[in-house]
Amino acid sequence: MKPHRFTSHAAWMLFALALIVGCSKAANNATTGGAAASASALASGMSIYNQLGGSETVKQLVGAFGVNIAKSPTLSKVFDAAAIAETQLGLTNEIAKASGLVAPNPGVDLATTLSGKGLDAAGFSALSSALGAAADELKLPKEQKNAVVGLLTPITAGLAGGKK
């Protein structure tokens, strides 16, 4: 467990460093696959990361998201502890990328993490609900909640590939 804890701390330190370096460019960088909600968040002049309040809130959001995945009857059948952890890292990366920052967890991609799980429309809906509930638990304003949940939209739509 200690190597994982070190890796997690190192990743967050890289994330903070990326914020310092990339902050001046964040509003000008295009999102990579973000939905309209995350684009409007950038248009406001602040990145999603900054609107959320920085790394502490991102950590809390990602943590609550993981707990909600584990509690979901639909998702807990598909996600074991390792898959939940990887999904959390993937969400952290998506928030960073949408904010114009370097992804703090190299090699982890949320689309890749979610692919192959056999999720159908109900599974993708449960995933969005888990993230929305995490945002609600943190009492995020509607705009930030929509921006964060909007990050999932292009990923889940691409993975659904027309599944109903």
What is this structure's SSE topology?
Blueprint: H1 2-22, H2 36-43, H3 48-52, H4 55-71, H5 81-98, H6 110-114, H7 121-137, H8 142-160
Helix pairs in contact: 2-8, 4-5, 4-7, 7-8
Structural class: mainly alpha
**Assembly state of the chains shown:** single chain
Q: Can you tell me the CATH class? A: Mainly Alpha
The tally of structural domains comes to 1
Uncertain stretches = 1-42
Mean pLDDT: 79
N/C terminus separation: 40 Å
* Bulk shape: globular
Write out the CATH superfamily name: Globins
Spell out the helices and strands N to C.
HHHHHHHH
How would you characterize the largest beta sheet?
A: none
Number of helices: 8
Textual characterization of the structure:
The protein has about 160 residues and is mainly alpha-helical. The protein is globular and about 35 Å long. The longest helix is centred in the N-terminal third of the chain and has 21 residues, at about 1-20. Helix 2 (about 35-45) runs antiparallel to helix 8. The protein has helices at about 1-20, 35-45, 50, 55-70, 80-100, 110-115, 120-135, 140-160. About 65% of the residues lie in helices and about 0% in strands. It starts with a helix and ends with a helix. The protein has a single domain (about 1-20, about 35-160), classed as Orthogonal Bundle (Globin-like), CATH 1.10.490.10. It is built from 8 helices and no strands. Mean pLDDT is about 80; it is low at about 1-40.
